[in-house]
């Protein structure tokens, strides 16, 4: 019984950490219509950021400033935001799919830096983290993990509350206005590029928070944790849950992470030895199929956006080759 | 230096072939197709299978061309593969992208293209195995063209260079001398105006996929000849292709050809100054530079 609870604790901790990143993507894609093709870069900036800022002093490289946890956390989030600013400034005034290409590129660039800049990131060996907050006070790992799950859950609630407040505020209406009809927003004197940039950077900072929590939980980070598949998983979570709906984003995270872990377990338990080698490929095909089939069969996801009837009658014209006002 | 220049031009010419299809689709259908690079991998692997099938027909087909590791059957296989890849590209459009653009926005197609890329790449891995492979196991010796500065060239590389030049010339003739080429150019410049003039847009979209897929297949065979076949070759190339399309200007066929050469040269020359491990980041740096300095690309139109 203890075994099941402790596994469930572990599962939920990771699922909720990823749910935070899904909420960040929901701000970018769901509410503003911004395509982020490199979620893993902002997640990674947060993860490496917190370990570099809060980690123990290093003898073999830069970093390990051993800053207090909250300071390191804020620093990690700001680092993710700065990375988003670099990409966003170049692309938010251009064609919408340029952001997709640039974010996809920044993820690859960050991966090469993480793998090669040993002085800063420890290279392939990765970086050791630090003692987790309050770990000394709660000695029993079982109870500590439950406590950590609680912290993560509170972070999910805080981000959820923040986003719900944000989208109901005048700024939230602006986001949707830019998404639905950029020309109309501009005619009212608003600046769509600035609004898009704000939303993109805020979303990336939420992804940075997710990465920082991930590195805190494992007290270790290495290039293996920043596999490109993470970006796809986060998308699948948002699309399945229903983009534009924050509750849907959290539910999507649980459902997709559950099927990811479940399929992995099933493949190791049932599949014959020679197929095991390809377990990764099979799981990737699963994620790809979830994305494509959900888009084709149930584009609104499990929980549709509450304003969905407006979105689907106004935005989309049936003719291909339609021009945007970029 | 000389060696880097040659390698850059060689890789660049392969990128050019891949980027032409990408830029056409990006312009006509208004979405960045992240699965385009997988057509390159598909083309290369189709040729591998077809090569085995064709060479089974007659032993004479397996004879190698003088000095090359390329056999007659591989050339036949490549021709069949470009047809097959082109048709498959059009089929994917019919099954997925066409439906999405009928009832959703262009960015939804970008989403789907990521999903398709992921599926195609891993299906290739499932079928052909995760290890990389070659068309021929013979060792191709490089010729020393000059010793100082050092320049080593494999005969296969000259074959690739000649092939890409021939293909580009053929493409140039197609779009400047035939009415179907004119129509394609018209659609790529202004889809609405082209339709007003009675050009069948749906047919031109199919043609763009066919053409893009075929060029990608040739690029795939060339890339595999120069390097090797591996299931992740599409993933390794995708960012360079976008860099080529953006540098050249989205929608410009000649721009994509020029952009491919620039990206190939820049990536190759940069290795003289930066460690090899950072090579995958080069296309991103080029994209970022292009977007900050000249977002419409060299030959792209202002928008």
For the residues shown, what is the average pLDDT of chain B?
89
Radius of gyration of chain B: 19 Å
Low-confidence stretches of chain A: 308-326
**Main pleated-sheet profile of chain A:** 2 strands, antiparallel
The low-confidence parts of chain B are none
**Content-based structural category of chain B:** mainly alpha
Q: What letter string, H or E per element, gives the SSE order of chain B?
A: HHHHEEHHHHHHH
Q: Class by helix and strand content of chain A?
A: mainly alpha
Oligomer: heterodimer
Helix content of chain A: over 70%
Q: Provide the residue-averaged pLDDT of chain A.
A: 87
- CATH fold title of chain B: ABC transporter involved in vitamin B12 uptake, BtuC
> What is the overall shape of chain A?
globular
How many separate domains of chain B?
1
Most extensive interface: A-B, 54 and 59 residues
**Strand percentage of chain A, roughly?**
under 5%
What's the SSE pattern of chain A?
Answer: HHHHHEHHHHEHHHHH
Q: Can you tell me the CATH architecture of chain B? A: Orthogonal Bundle
Task: Please give the share of residues in helix of chain B.
Answer: over 70%
- % residues in beta strands of chain B: under 5%
Tell how many strands the DSSP assignment of chain A holds. Answer: 2
């Amino acid at each position: 019984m203890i075994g099941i609870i402790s596994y469930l604790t572990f599962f939920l901790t990771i699922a909720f950490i990823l749910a935070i990143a899904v909420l960040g993507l929901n701000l970018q894609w769901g509410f503003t219509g911004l395509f982020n093709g490199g979620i893993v870069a902002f997640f990674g900036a947060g993860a490496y950021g917190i370990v570099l800022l809060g980690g123990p002093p290093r003898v073999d490289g830069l970093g390990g400033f051993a800053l207090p946890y909250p300071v390191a956390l804020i620093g990690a989030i700001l680092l993710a935001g700065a990375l988003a600013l670099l990409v966003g400034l170049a692309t938010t005034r251009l064609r919408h799919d340029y952001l997709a290409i640039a974010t996809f590129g920044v993820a690859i660039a960050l991966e090469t830096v993480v793998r090669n800049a040993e002085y800063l990131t420890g290279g392939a060996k990765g970086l050791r983290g630090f003692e987790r907050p309050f770990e000394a006070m709660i000695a029993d790992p079982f109870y500590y993990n439950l406590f950590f799950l609680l912290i993560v859950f509170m972070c999910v609630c805080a981000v959820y509350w923040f986003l719900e407040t944000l989208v109901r505020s005048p700024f939230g209406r602006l986001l949707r206005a830019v998404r639905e009809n950029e020309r109309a927003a501009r005619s009212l004197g608003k600046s769509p590029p600035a609004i898009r940039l704000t939303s993109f950077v805020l979303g990336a900072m939420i992804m940075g928070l997710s990465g920082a929590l991930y590195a805190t939980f494992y007290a270790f980070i290495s290039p293996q944790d920043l596999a490109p598949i993470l970006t796809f998983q986060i998308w699948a979570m948002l699309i399945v849950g229903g983009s534009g709906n924050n509750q849907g984003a959290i539910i999507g995270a649980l459902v997709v992470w559950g099927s990811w872990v479940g399929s992995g377990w099933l493949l190791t338990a049932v599949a014959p030895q020679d197929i095991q080698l390809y377990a990764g490929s099979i799981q990737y095909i699963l994620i790809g199929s979830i994305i494509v089939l959900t888009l084709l069969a149930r584009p609104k996801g499990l929980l549709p956006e509450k304003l969905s009837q407006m979105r689907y009658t106004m935005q989309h014209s049936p003719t291909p080759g339609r021009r945007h006002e970029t | 230096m000389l060696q880097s220049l040659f390698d850059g031009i060689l890789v660049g010419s392969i990128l050019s072939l891949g980027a032409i299809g990408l830029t056409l689709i990006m312009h006509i259908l208004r979405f960045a197709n992240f699965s385009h690079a997988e057509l390159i991998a598909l083309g290369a692997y189709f040729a591998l299978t077809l090569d085995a099938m064709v060479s089974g027909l007659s032993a004479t087909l397996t004879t190698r061309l003088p000095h090359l590791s390329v056999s007659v059957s591989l050339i036949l296989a490549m021709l069949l593969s470009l047809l097959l890849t082109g048709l498959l590209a059009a089929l994917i459009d019919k099954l997925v992208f066409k439906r999405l653009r009928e009832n959703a926005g262009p960015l939804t197609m970008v989403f789907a293209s990521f999903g398709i890329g992921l599926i195609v790449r891993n299906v290739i891995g499932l079928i052909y195995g995760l290890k990389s492979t070659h068309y021929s196991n013979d060792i191709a010796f490089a010729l020393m063209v000059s010793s100082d500065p050092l320049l080593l060239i494999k005969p296969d590389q000259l074959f690739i260079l000649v092939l890409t030049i021939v293909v580009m010339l053929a493409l140039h003739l197609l779009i400047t001398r035939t009415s179907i080429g004119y129509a394609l150019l018209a659609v790529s410049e202004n889809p609405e105006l082209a339709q007003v003039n009675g050009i069948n847009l749906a047919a031109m979209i199919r043609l763009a996929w066919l053409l893009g897929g075929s060029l990608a297949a040739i690029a795939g065979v060339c890339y595999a000849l120069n390097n090797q076949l591996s299931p992740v070759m599409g993933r390794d190339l995708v960012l360079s292709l976008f860099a080529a399309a953006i540098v050249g200007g989205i929608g410009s066929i000649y721009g994509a050809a020029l952009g491919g050469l620039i990206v190939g040269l820049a990536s190759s020359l940069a290795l003289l100054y930066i460690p090899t491990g950072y090579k995958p980041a080069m296309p991103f740096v080029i994209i970022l530079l292009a977007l900050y300095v000249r977002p419409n690309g060299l030959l792209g139109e202002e928008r």
